[in-house]
Design goal:
Shape: elongated
Low-confidence stretches: none
Order of helices and strands: HHHEEEEEE
Number of strands: 6
Radius of gyration: 37 Å
Number of domains: 2
Largest sheet: 4 strands, antiparallel
Distance between the termini: 91 Å
Strand order of the largest sheet: 1-4-5-6
Number of helices: 3
Helix content: 10-25%
C-alpha cells in the first residue's frame, strides 16, 4: 500500500479530518481560476524609484578637492600601439614612427622639463614636448 493511498482512504476505510482537508485542498487547487499571464510590456511601466516611494536626496553642491598640478616628478605609462600608430596618453594623441606599430611602448613624462620620452624595449624611439601647465 502506498502512503498516498493510506492518507486518502484513512485508517480502516474511515476518513479522518486530515484526509478530508487534503481532498478539499486538491479539489480547490484543480478548480481554481487562474489569471492569464501578463506580458512585461503590457504592465504599467513604473520607475523603480517611484515604486519604492523613497525620494532620492542629492547634495546641493558637489564639492570635490582641487589638486594643484605637480611641479616635479615623473609619470610612466605603458601603452599598446595599434595599426594607426597613435599613442594615447591621458586622452592626448601623439603619432609614433612605423616601427612602434603592434608593439608595447613606455612613455615617461618628466614634469619639470615638460618632455615625454617614448621608448620601446629599452631603446628610445622619440621625445615629445608635453605641456602640463
Amino acid at each position: 500500500m502506498q502512503i498516498q493511498d493510506y492518507f486518502l482512504r484513512g485508517i480502516a476505510g474511515k476518513e479522518t479530518g486530515f484526509t478530508q482537508a487534503v481532498k478539499l485542498a486538491c479539489v480547490a487547487e484543480n478548480t481554481r481560476q487562474r489569471k492569464p499571464l501578463q506580458r512585461r510590456d503590457t504592465l504599467e511601466k513604473i520607475h523603480p524609484l517611484e515604486a519604492s516611494g523613497i525620494k532620492p536626496v542629492f547634495p546641493a553642491k558637489l564639492t570635490g578637492r582641487k589638486f594643484s598640478k605637480p611641479v616635479q616628478g615623473t609619470y610612466r605609462v605603458v601603452r599598446f600601439i595599434r595599426s594607426d600608430g597613435i599613442l594615447d596618453v591621458f586622452r592626448e594623441h601623439f603619432q609614433l614612427p612605423e616601427q612602434a606599430v603592434y608593439e608595447y611602448v613606455t612613455a615617461t613624462i618628466d614634469v619639470a622639463q615638460e618632455r615625454m620620452v617614448v621608448d620601446m624595449g629599452g631603446t628610445k624611439i622619440g621625445e615629445i614636448v608635453y605641456l602640463l601647465r
